[in-house]
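FAQ: What does a ligand-bound record look like?

Like this one, built around S-adenosylmethionine:
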Amino acid sequence: MTKPTGSTGFLQLIRERRTRDAIYHAKDYWDARATARTGLSRSLWPSNTYNALWDERQRDLITRALGGWSEHRMLDVGCGTGRMTRFLASRGAKSVTGVDFSEATVASARAETAEAEEPWVLQTRFETADVLAGFSHLGASFDDVLVLGCLSVACQTASDLEVSFRNIANVVCAGGRVLVLEPIHRSPLLRRVLDLGIEEWVSLANRAGLELAKADRMGFVPVRLVCSVRDVPEALVRPIFAAGENVLDRAPFLAPLSDYKLLLFRRSAR
Ligand SMILES: C[S@@+](CC[C@H](N)C(=O)[O-])C[C@H]1O[C@@H](n2cnc3c(N)ncnc32)[C@H](O)[C@@H]1O
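The answer part, i.e. the structure of the complex:
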């Protein structure tokens, strides 16, 4: 029997949203998704058609923000099934470690990466780790750390976020970069678990020794709400998605209508 893609209804999404505080930060929830869904929907949205466009857009945004990462040692925190770990490795990183607290998700990331049968697979490694507990067991430091969609579900309070930023800062070398791409919202409809605004995120990062270098945004909310829950033909979704992202690129004053905010930090010298 083929597993469901994760395609679901708008009402189900709303129902999940109402219970998000109890489920999104729980390991069991992500373990269950890794086994019940297929493809990118295990870590992203229910629609895999939408996910492919989301993934493309995030790759572009990250490339634009970082410029390059040739020969860098990189850490992908809350890596999900490893899509960004693989992308970073395939574009010249010296090594990329993907970590996630869900064992089932890490197992999926390892299996999917092994299937790639590309030389850069040897540059990747996946480990279980909780961002709230830290990464000392990895026994490594990194030039760049990326965190995509993890902190906003892992952290329940400002103090959790500060601890997480400190754990991240502890494994970035001085002058190294931390790229955060997260749904940062206070609105009851859009926020995930953490209820903090951008200023608070930046100030907690500053307290951990991270200085803001760049900001950007993506994920035009009206398009996301309509197109991410059901698999609609790509020929239909692609132009709508592109139009939404174009609006965000051209009209900075519409930033509040972006789901994900990119914050690029530099680790100050110790
Ligand atoms: C929305 S998914 C994003 C996955 C991946 N970064 C991506 O963008 O494709 C959030 C991921 O964070 C992981 N996660 C949640 N809380 C975590 C924690 N405390 N420590 C490490 N990973 C965590 C989940 O298991 C899940 O894989």
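Follow-up question: can I read anything off the structure? Yes, for example: Residues 10-267 form a domain with the Rossmann fold fold (CATH 3.40.50.150).
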